[in-house]
Design a protein that fits this description.
Mean pLDDT: 86
Radius of gyration: 14 Å
Strand order of the largest sheet: 1-2
Low-confidence stretches: 113-124, 130-134
Largest sheet: 2 strands, antiparallel
Distance between the termini: 39 Å
Strand content: under 5%
Number of strands: 2
């Protein structure tokens, strides 16, 4: 599977999580975040694996046979993407993920793939907070 598709597959469940959390009180933030993530997933599905940001993610260890793992900082970036503001497009999200992965690698953190796979089960997508009840 192409690496760009792996990233897109990672983003889609987070978008679904945002859709499931949408409620009138959130003033459209969850819906906006879901649209931003779905837009990024569509962009990535059409992007070539030769993109420099994808190569940076690969060098940082974000891809395994089970899928894409951006690490804890990358998870937070994806989870919060377009929630408070609409600044940045899909290429900006990809660059932010690559920057975060490189910071983790430079700090000597374990490869991204090992952390999330052990916590959430490999290939199941991101580890997300439970939705609010009530």
């Amino acid at each position: 599977m192409p690496k760009t598709w792996m990233i897109a597959e990672y983003l889609r469940p987070v978008a679904q999580w945002r859709i499931d959390r949408a409620e009138p009180r959130d003033e459209g933030r969850n819906a906006r975040a879901a649209i931003g993530l779905l837009d990024a997933a569509a962009y990535l599905a059409a992007l070539d694996d030769g993109d420099p940001a994808v190569a940076r993610l690969a060098v940082a260890g974000c891809f395994t046979v089970d899928g894409f793992d951006p690490g804890p900082e990358g998870e937070a970036i994806v989870r919060d993407w377009h929630y408070e503001s609409v600044a940045g497009g899909p290429a900006d999200l990809l660059a932010a993920l690559a920057d975060a992965a490189e910071r983790a690698r430079a700090s000597g953190a374990a490869p991204a793939g090992g952390r999330l796979a052990a916590r959430s089960g490999a290939g199941r997508g991101p580890s997300l907070p439970r939705p609010r009840v009530g």
